[in-house]
Amino acid sequence: MASIVTGSDTTTLDLLLEKVCGDTGYDFREYKRGTVTRRLERRLRVTGAKTYLDYMEFLDAHPEEYQRLADDFTIKVSGFFRSLYTFQQVTRLVLPELVAYKRNRGEWELKFWSTACARGEEPYSIAILLAEFLGNRRQDFDISIYAADISRQALKEAQVGIYSPKDVEGLTPTVRKSYFTRYDKGYVVNSNIRQMVSFSYFDLTSTMRQPFVNLDCIFCCNVLIYLQSQLQERVLSMLYDSLATPGYLILGEVETPTNSLRDKLECLDSKARIYKKNGRT
Ligand SMILES: C[S@@+](CC[C@H](N)C(=O)[O-])C[C@H]1O[C@@H](n2cnc3c(N)ncnc32)[C@H](O)[C@@H]1O
Predict the structure, then answer these.
(1) 47 CB-side CA count, 13 A
(2) Phi, psi torsion values for 275, nearest 5 degrees
(3) Does the CB atom of residue 223 touch ligand 1 within 6 A?
């Protein structure tokens, strides 16, 4: 096999991605090729490899490079209430309807999933949103916000829940004061918010069964953009199956959902890309 692997072409790229997947489980084979090659170019530069074949040899000799590669592949830029408009629309269009529905049926569980939670800003924003929306009624509900990602480093930091002054500068002083405690050089998320969120590793591209079912609301923001359309379809179909009926899917302002999803779900806001699952189709 080595004899045909001579350059930085598509075939060797495929082989390299196969190797990474086989050796680590990180499956970037159906990520958009532009992102993949840009990220790999960086790793080639840093490691001094001239071709993908050189880089495969480097990986064999330095297995610790796999983790650096995975870390470079995953773009963890995030922020509290990153798309303010989206969160405002969730408060306007989703929460009143969802909470009223639960209350009418005497159901007191609220289950959310932040599918690519990065360093925790998104799930903690959801928890703060719920705390603000529910106020005193919060005690009535058993709230679970599942937060997952493939970056173990990001998950570790998310769990610690400490953020720099820069990370929280976009929050209003009231929110900062109500939900964070000044800690040494940063801010730590208060325990009443943290206890709503549980972090775990989950690869959205995995072909395993969905980890959660009967969810009231799923956030899948700023991650599908990195995936090729076929894989986006597969992920969205898995998310659809994870939703309760009614259930809400929040894609945010950046993602562009596939046609099949648009057929299955009711669009509540086309800018924030908020969708509702009404019933089986
Ligand atoms: C740009 S951040 C988005 C964070 C957050 N959702 C937001 O909108 O601010 C993308 C995140 O997706 C994660 N990610 C990439 N591929 C993933 C996958 N296959 N499964 C789960 N998370 C993934 C990355 O590790 C990274 O934390």
Answers:
(1) 27
(2) -125, 155
(3) yes
R_g (Cα) of the chain, nearest Å: 20
Determine what percent of the chain falls in helix, strand and coil, rounding each to the nearest 5: 50, 20, 30
Helices vs strands, H then E, count in the chain: 13, 10
Q: Residue 207: its pLDDT value, please?
A: 73
Among 35, 150, 206, say which to mutate for ligand 1: greatest number of ligand atoms within 8 Å of CB.
Answer: 150
| pLDDT tens readout for residues 17-53 | 999 999 988 899 999 999 899 999 999 999 999 999 9
User: Band of the pLDDT at 227, cuts 50, 70, 90?
Assistant: very high
Angle (deg, nearest 10), helices 10-24 and 33-47: 80
Euclidean distance between CA atoms 5 and 1, whole angstroms: 7
CA of 6 to the centre of ligand 1 (A): 32
Distance CA 179, CA 176 (A): 6
**Pocket of ligand 1 contains residue 122 by CB under 6 Å:** yes
At 279, the amino acid letter reads G
| Count of alpha carbons within 13 angstroms of residue 141, beta-carbon side | 26
How many whole angstroms from 222 Cα to the centroid of ligand 1? 7
Question: For residue 227, what are its two tokens?
Answer: 């995936």
- Residues 6+ away with beta carbon under 8 Å from 15: 1, 5, 52, 56
Tens of pLDDT, residue by residue over 158-217, are: 999 999 999 999 999 999 999 999 988 899 999 999 999 999 999 998 877 789 999 999
